Structures are given as C-alpha cells and as structure tokens.
Amino acid sequence: MILPGDSPQAIEQCARHLRGGGLVGLPTETVYGLAANAHDDAAVARIFAAKGRPADHPLIIHVAGVQALGHFAHGVPAYCTALLQAFWPGPLTVVLRRNTGMAMAASGGHGTIALRCPAHPVAQALLAKLADAAAGGACWGSQVWGLAAPSANRFGKVSPTTAQHVAEEFGEAFPVLDGGPCAVGIESTIVDCTHDRPVLLRPGVLTGQALHEACGVALAAPTQAQQPVRAPGTLASHYAPRARVRLLEEQALRDALHTLPPTAAQRVAVWSRWEDAPTAIRQCTMPDVAAEAARQLFAVLRNYDAEGVEEIWVQTVPDSPEWEGVRDRLQRAAATWTHTD
C-alpha cells in the first residue's frame, strides 16, 4: 500500500504501525529503506525475514540528528564530529562503538553500530512524529527513536529508488511512504570511525577528498578484517539484477555489439555514454556527470530487468573519485558474471 509522503495522516498511520512492531517502506535521499523500530528486536527480525538477509549482517539505523548519537554509541572521535557537522543530514553513515544493550539485533550482534541522519523531509517527518509520541510516553521506554532501515529490496538485489519499486518487490506486505524518486540514487557512504583515522568501508556520492577536507584526516582503506560483515552492502556480489551485468571498456563494448548475432540482440541491453548501438538493441544513455549517473543507476537496471533482457552490457565508468560510488555498485552487480565468465 503506497501512501502519500506529504500527508500528515499517512505519517501518523506509519508511526503507529512502527510503534506496533510493523515495517514501513521509507524514502530517503539515497534509496528507499525498509524501516522498523531499532529498539524492537522482534520488529528488526521481520526486516531480516522479509529481505532474506543473514541476521549477522548489520543494518543502518536512521536518526533525527546528532543529538541521538550518545544514546546509541560512545567514543566519538573528533574527526567523526567534523564529518557529521559537514554531512548530516545527508548520505553519510558512520560506524561507531555501540552502547551496551542498544539495538543489538539491528547491529547483527556486533560491538559496533552504523548510524545515519537522512536528509529526506518525509524520513525526518516520520522520525519527528515518533519522537513526539515518545515524549508522550508511547514508546519503548526512551524518547530517542532510531529506525533500522536497510534498502527495501531482497537481499543482494537492486536497491529501490521509487515507492513503486518497493511495492513491486514486496506487494502489500507493509505501507510505503511515497517521497518521489530518490535524489541521490545509490546508498550512503559508510565510514568506520572506531579507529584513530577514518576508514572508508563503502563509497558513495561523497568523495574521499570531500571527506578528507571536512575532517582534516586522510581516509584509510579497510583491512580484510574490517570487511565484509561490519558494514552493509560490502559483499563481493551485491546490487544485482536478474539479468547478468557485464562491464566493458568502450571499444570492447562497441566490438561486442557489432559482432552480436541478430538472433541474440533482443536478449541484450546497453547502458553507455554514446547512442549509436545497433538499432535492434535496447540502449539507454549513461549521463556524463557522475551524480546523475548514480541517480539513474538502479532504475536503469530495474527497468531492463522488467523488459526481460538476459544480459546488461555497461560501459565502464571513468577512473576518477567522483565516479567511485557508481563504479563500486556496478562492480558488485557484475560480480556473478565476472566469477562465471
């Protein structure tokens, strides 16, 4: 059931649903999330069951602002505070040391916790409504709300960027607040802030340079021990459509298209930064600007899946910092093809 995100009645309905242990499809600026009360382990278990996600894979907890930080976590380093001042609300998730007893199920049983403050007005309106109810005593013994909200899709598959995507994935299983298409389009940047310097666990639209400039500390690459379970979306194969994704340099892609037998043309679709593929082949033009390509990425993959293609051939993206988030998502989407080709 899709509800208008700009309706106070719909916000109240979803707040009641969450307080009762239910799930809600939630728009954020990155992708749509599948939200539950982070303090309610039974509700969080419903997220894992709905997604088919292993229970030891932590979820991101969405909070209204930095005032919630001390409720869930401790040991916040100065560089983390600087990052939050620069990028919250926004597409940045920080991993911190979890306070004892806080959101254990949502954190996958780990001693760390992933926190984000979404910038989307609908997400903020829902968090505010829940906080109002908490202040009135209608909460789990705390006035600090957090919503565990991984992407609202089956585990490992393409993330949703519209309310309709969520409904197509889960049907009428829970209400979905419609906040329009996601402005960012790929998941948040995740930074581990439990060390003496920040560690980039998952790239997003925020570049390493932007993060460095904001906090004054250069980011470190994750060690093998810090991946893949401590942060969402860091499996080798992830964000994958039903169709196989193949990444090709421009000339290799052109050569492959022009040698493709006519009988195979209908099973292949292309996403590239040029438009002269053979006419029998479905083609969508990839934007030259990384932020716009990020916004379109998951919708393109979902649309091609809906058209029933068997393979999606994608031109590799530029090897520059602003494309890192898109490149990461494409490489993970193509991992199954890469491992079996």
From TrEMBL:
YrdC-like domain: residues covered: 8-206
- Enzymatic reactions: L-threonine + hydrogencarbonate + ATP = L-threonylcarbamoyladenylate + diphosphate + H2O
Indicate where this protein resides in the cell.
Answer: Cytoplasm
Going by the UniProt record, its keywords in alphabetical order are: ATP-binding, Cytoplasm, Nucleotide-binding, Nucleotidyltransferase, Transferase, tRNA processing
**Transmembrane segments in this chain: where?**
none
- Is the keyword Transport assigned to this protein? no
Q: Which SUPFAM superfamilies match?
A: YrdC/RibB
For this UniProt entry, the molecular function terms from Gene Ontology, in alphabetical order, are: ATP binding; double-stranded RNA binding; L-threonylcarbamoyladenylate synthase; tRNA binding
| Record-linked NCBIfam families | L-threonylcarbamoyladenylate synthase
Q: Name one Pfam family in it.
A: Sua5_C
Source organism per UniProt: Candidatus Symbiobacter mobilis CR
Name the residues that bind L-threonine. Answer: T30, H62, R116, A149, S188
The family database entries (Gene3D superfamilies) matched by this protein are listed as: DHBP synthase, Threonylcarbamoyl-AMP synthase, C-terminal domain
Under which name does UniProt file this protein?
Threonylcarbamoyl-AMP synthase
> Per the UniProt record, which EC number(s) apply here?
2.7.7.87
Task: Give the family per the record.
Answer: Belongs to the SUA5 family.
Q: Does the keyword Nucleotidyltransferase apply?
A: yes
Extract one GO cellular component term from the record: cytoplasm
